[in-house]
Design goal:
single chain, 251 residues, alpha/beta, Rossmann fold, 11 helices, 5 strands, 34% helix, 12% strand
Length: 251
């Protein structure tokens, strides 16, 4: 008797869907992994309508920015044994969260002539609405990381991403430290797993994977004060929704 297939749904909220395309970039590796599941919903992959029902794993990408988004998210959580967040927008608010730090009505007038009927909520991470069991971090996520951890969910377990910094990956790749060159980089306080793709390209880490639990924010902030202005620091932390987490620290 064949084992019962796990029921999976990959759902889009408001996003560029780049994390889902990262899965497609895995090619046959992704198809092989999904050959052992029953894909209930994945609009980039199939056209069949989701008929509802219980799910073993619900995966969500994007920010809950509209009323329909929020309804979709709440229903997905209710249906799913495990709820997985895919990428920076869902986990940290992402680029859309920059709106929170602007003058709301003044900004929206740049797009809409009449703003009275426009639903313009503050951008909030998925975990403000529902319980999240696991986060695949990044913008976009790491395809290799998905292949590594997703099978654990199929086995009924919740994996743990090792608490190591982006700097560890820089050292493994032989990169020269940007901070030693007086160039801004948040690598020491950011969760690794991206293969240090930005520092390898000589671009400072801007924190799309979020803070690591044991990162010393105060120390890196003091170091960055010698390299960038307070305004530059604030602007950088806004790019991927890092500002709220960093601002909890007293400098």
């Amino acid at each position: 008797m064949k084992p019962k297939l796990k029921k999976i749904a990959i759902v889009s909220l408001t996003s560029c869907e780049g994390c889902q395309f990262t899965l497609f970039d895995l090619g046959e590796k992704f198809l092989d992994l999904m050959s052992n599941v029953e894909m209930i919903d994945f609009r980039l992959f199939e056209d069949e309508k989701d008929k509802g029902g219980k799910l073993d794993i619900g995966i969500v990408e994007g920010s809950p920015m509209t009323k329909d988004n929020i309804k979709t998210l709440l229903k997905l959580r209710k249906r799913s044994k495990f709820l997985i967040v895919l990428g920076n927008c869902a986990a940290m608010g992402g680029v859309p969260e920059i709106k929170n730090y602007q003058q709301g009505k003044a900004t929206i007038k740049q797009v809409y002539k009449h703003v009275q009927e426009i639903f313009n909520p503050e951008i909030k991470e998925v975990n403000n609405f529902v319980k999240v069991d696991f986060v695949f971090p990044g913008c976009p996520i790491s395809g290799d990381e998905f292949l590594k951890y997703f099978p654990e969910f199929l086995a009924g377990n919740i994996p743990i991403i090792q608490d190591q910094s982006v700097c560890i990956e820089c050292r493994k790749k032989g990169n020269k430290c940007l901070l030693l060159e007086n160039k801004p980089c948040f690598g020491p306080i950011i969760l690794g797993g991206c293969d240090a793709v930005c520092p390898t390209s000589r671009m400072g880490c801007q924190g799309c994977r979020g803070l690591r639990k044991s990162g010393n924010i105060k120390t890196i902030r003091c170091m960055l004060k010698k390299i960038m202005t307070d305004q530059e620091f604030e602007n950088t932390t806004e790019i991927y929704g890092l500002r709220d987490d960093v601002s909890k620290e007293k400098f």
